[in-house]
Specification:
The chain is built from no helices and 14 strands. Strands 1, 3, 6, 8, 9 and 11 form a six-stranded mixed sheet that branches. Strands 2, 4, 5, 7, 10 and 12 form a six-stranded antiparallel sheet that branches. The chain has a two-stranded parallel ribbon with strand order 13-14. A hairpin with a 2-residue loop joins strand 8 and strand 9.
């Protein structure tokens, strides 16, 4: 496949989590579908954003293709406040650049390692309000070494997009921006953590 396939536009609101496999209505030139960890150590995610599903990623071991492109056409004409949201994972000592292109214009870019976790991005698409054909493209660029895998998951275009995180305000890691609880809430147990003290509490965190 030379990447020349053309598909009709999907109607927004639209979400793609890749759990049913690589979507046939996306143009893919170099990205791979995966679950669990990537083949390379110290780079790439260990699972998808929700756990147990799939994600798309750019494998940079060996002699990788550069760049790689993954795109989908969307009809956002019914959305009054269109926005693109997705999760990305960029961890390793040789991570390149992830670009997001809309109808040929670069609307978002990030480079280098962003830590060993999924991060979220939300991009205003108001410049394309009313459009029946917006081509959203994810471009991965090689960073020069094998520890530079780039992954994306949960791509959504809507008027209000889901943000995963801890939604319990009494938790230590409460995220006021989160709209969907991802089970990550953490509740520290106060107490003495010194085992030599008479009031040592082994449950204290």
């Amino acid at each position: 496949d030379d990447g020349s396939c053309v598909y009709g536009c999907n109607t927004a609101p639209y979400c793609q989590n890749f759990d049913s496999g690589a979507p046939g209505d996306w143009n893919n030139n170099g990205w791979a579908i995966n679950s669990g960890g990537t083949p390379s150590t110290n780079t790439g995610p260990s699972d998808d954003i929700t756990g147990g599903g799939n994600y798309m990623y750019y494998e940079v071991s060996g002699s990788p293709q550069n760049p790689v492109s993954l795109s989908v056409c969307l009809d956002i004409s019914i959305l009054t406040s269109p926005a693109l949201a997705f999760y990305y994972h960029m961890n390793g000592n040789a991570v390149g650049t992830l670009d997001v292109i809309a109808n040929g214009s670069n609307i978002w870019s990030i480079s280098g390692s962003q830590g060993n976790q999924w991060n979220t991005a939300q991009i205003d698409l108001s410049a394309y309000t009313g459009s029946s054909s917006v081509n959203i493209e994810f471009i991965g660029n090689y960073g020069g070494g094998w520890q530079g895998d780039i992954a994306i998951d949960e791509v959504c275009v809507d008027g209000s997009v889901a943000v995963y995180g801890c939604t319990d305000p009494i938790a230590a890691n409460y995220n006021p921006s989160a709209t969907v609880d991802d089970g990550s809430c953490y509740y520290p147990m106060p107490g003495c953590t010194d085992p030599t003290a008479i009031n040592y509490n082994p449950s204290a965190t």
